[in-house]
Amino acid sequence: MSKQILILKDKCKGCNLCVKACSFGAISVVEKIAVIDAAKCSYCGACEPACKFKAIEIKVDDIDRSSFSAYKGLWVYGENRDGVLAEVVYELVGEGRKLADKLKVELSVVIIGDKTQNLADDLFSYGVDNVYYIENKLLKDYDTNSYTKILEEAIEAHKPEIVLFGATSEGRSVAPRLAARVKTGLTADCTALDITADGDLAQTRPAFGGNIMATILCRTRPQLSTVRPHVMQKAAKLAKKGKKIELKSTIVEKDVVTKVLEFIKETRENVNLTESDIIIGAGRGVGSEENLKLIHQLAEKLGGVVGASRACVDAGWIDHFHQVGQTGKTVHPKIYIACGISGAIQHLAGMSSSDIIIAINKDADAPIFNVADLGIVGDVFTIIPALLKSL
Amino acid sequence: MHIVVCIKQVPDATQVKIDPKTNTLDRSSAPAILNPYDAHAVQAAVDLKKAYGGKVSVITMGPMQARDIIRKSLEYGADEGVLLSDRAFAGSDTLATSYIISKGLEKINSTDPIDLIICGKQAIDGDTAQVGPGIARRLNITQLTYVNKIVSVNLETREIIVHRVIDQGYEVVKAKLPCVITVEKEINELIYSSLPEMIKAARYVAPMWGVTEIGADLSQMGLKGSPTTVRKIFAPPEREGGERLTGSTTEIVNNLVNKLLEKIV
Predict the structure, then answer these.
(1) Residue A350 lies in a domain
(2) Are A236 and A191 in contact (CB under 8 A)?
(3) Does the beta carbon of B128 lie under 8 angstroms from any beta carbon of chain A?
(4) Mind listing the pLDDT tens digit for each residue in B18-58?
(5) Do A258 and B174 touch (CB under 8 A)?
(6) Is A28 on the interface with B (CB under 8 A)?
(7) pLDDT digits over A372-389, tens only?
(8) Does residue A97 belong to any structural domain of this protein?
(9) What pLDDT was estimated at residue A190?
(10) Number of domains within chain B
């Protein structure tokens, strides 16, 4: 066991403060002494500062870094389709550059596909040092098996210390399979990354439906993370020259085990939801499917799209594709107008990084007002028609 | 057709409350439920059983109380279940968890060959979506993630065709069986249980397998077998509430329009 948690029995008063601080329900007080249930404890350290009597000691053995020196450099997974890089790649390059500079290592992008070489020059202009690429007709469509095989071989050959993936459906498919292949740690859906004093990647992510944030380290190399799109800043243009390196791989037809028969570009609004500058969010307060028409009208008038809270989707008023929040989409528009949305933490998790939040709600105490830049306590059905008239 | 569904017991995130004094989760406020995505995974398996015949098994890793979600799955129409439970499993991250569950699946497969494994897209407590692909890799079979429709299964050619949701739309994909699919909620509507299924479920006690039963390697599980380690847990940063617009409706709307123009231009 690399971790130990001790209750100093002479100091513990059985006051229950640690019990309340524990998110995992791992502490109970038995005969006025705190007892830790090792099966539930995650050694997160939340109880240690909560104890006023310094009765809790957590000993975390240092990560064994002796084998880490063989691993150097930061990689970004260059997700692409039809010869175009996914938007998130530029965000990862922006963040990756900062982290690579802190570690004083090179930043590389690895691109797998059938049209990849020509993407390199563009990436160099965003400060990328190396582009590892493989170009093969067999790799036209994303296929988890062959893609992870190539990545595993590339990691084996070049040994990066960090690999960042977009937390897109592709990134979230390829990364966990790769982690199981190379037997290393993977942290999902990170919203903040940093380098610790020891040179480890500190990966911060929301957990429990956005109720808490956790910072996670990895005790093996490489360290893998998927990073939530629209959170990191896009890379700035830098006049830089980089190196193109072709990946050697033994991919043959039988490695490609899935066949994409057809790709259907979605015409539904969900395509636009994550890219839209203006989102009108509808909540339970809107009251019915019929009433949603007003929200659609406003969206149309402003050139935005309609988002929805879980309550609205669960009521069957609107398709799940519109759902914003922890179990829906994370959005980052310039303007988010929350109409009749109370502001449950799960909803806030998906939209609180919007540039400007406007809230319209009858309930003056609705939590949505705590995050809104502009709050209007009033009836959606009075305010919006008036707003529509004035536009 | 033998379908196995991997399920997880989770705290109902929609009912988790934050203790305002300590800024931590009040877990006692949240009842333990079958992960909502997994409920749809079970339903998808039951629908396939109806169409193609066969059997639906479920498997979960967790404490004794996790038998509740096996019962719930039987209510939805699953035939049997297995609980993987052992103190040695505690503290496992997604890599170690995928190892343990894949060992359980191997044991099931040795006596009752599996044609298809279905997982929910992700669990609502961790939201990682990592265990499904991890299991697929451990078993060295194909994975199809984010499936929102099963188009067809051909047991003679051993092929499955599904719709996979991707960021720009969806793709129609074909793969060989056995494979792992992870499903979205919109794959189906949950059907209420029939009384005989509920009675059968209520009486069902799933067998429990530990480290010995699944023949797993202790070094690959628990904290020891988990490369990721939680270093810090904290409350999310709060966004400050801003200005309230007051007055008559006309005043409010004019004020709002002006402010918006100001901020955009």
Answers:
(1) yes
(2) no
(3) yes
(4) 555 555 556 666 789 999 999 999 999 999 999 999 999 99
(5) yes
(6) no
(7) 999 999 999 999 999 999
(8) yes
(9) 95
(10) 1
For residue B67, what are the domain limits? 2-220
The answer on A384 and A318 residing in a single domain is: yes
Q: What's A285's domain CATH number?
A: 3.40.50.1220
Q: With beta carbons under 8 A apart, name residues in chain B contacting A313.
A: none
Q: Do you know the residue count of chain A?
A: 391
- State pTM to two decimals: 0.80
Domain assignment of residue A263, yes or no? no
Residue range of the domain that includes A154: 68-255
Token duo for residue B20: 């305002």
Domain-ending residue, one of A60, A76, A101: A60
Task: Compare all CA atoms of chain A with the CA of B125 and give the residue at the minimum distance.
Answer: A208
Asked if residue A304 and residue A228 are part of one domain, the reply reads no
In a domain, A214, yes or no: yes
List, for chain A, all residue ranges whose pLDDT scores fall below the cut of 70: 1-2, 61-62, 209-211, 266-272
Instruction: Answer whether B133 sits within 8 Å of A144, measured CB to CB.
Output: yes
CA distance A321 to A291: 19
Using the structure block, give the residue that is written with the tokens 């991707």: B166
Total structural domains in chain A?
Answer: 3
In a domain, B228, yes or no: no
Q: Are residues A114 and A199 in the same domain?
A: yes
The amino acid that residue A377 corresponds to is V
Q: What CATH number has the domain bearing residue B19?
A: 3.40.50.620
Q: Are residues A84 and A172 in the same domain?
A: yes
Question: How far is residue A377 from each of residues A240, A298, A337, B125, measured CA to CA in Å?
Answer: 52, 18, 13, 33
pLDDT reported for residue A270: 47
- Per-residue pLDDT at B24: 55
A292-342: per-residue pLDDT in tens? 999 999 998 888 899 999 999 989 999 888 999 877 787 878 899 999 999
How close, in Å, is residue B89 to chain A by CA atoms?
8
- The reply to whether residue A219 touches residue B227, judged by beta carbons under 8 angstroms, is yes
A81 contacts on B by Cβ (under 8 Å): 168
In the sheet where B2-7 sits, what is the strand order? A258-265, B169-176, B159-166, B142-154, B179-183, B116-120, B2-7, B55-61, B80-84, B208-209
**What token pair was written down for B26?**
């009040």
Residues of A in contact with B144 (CB under 8 A): 258
Listed residue (A189, A156, A144) closest to B135, CA to CA? A144
Residues A76 and A54 in one domain: no
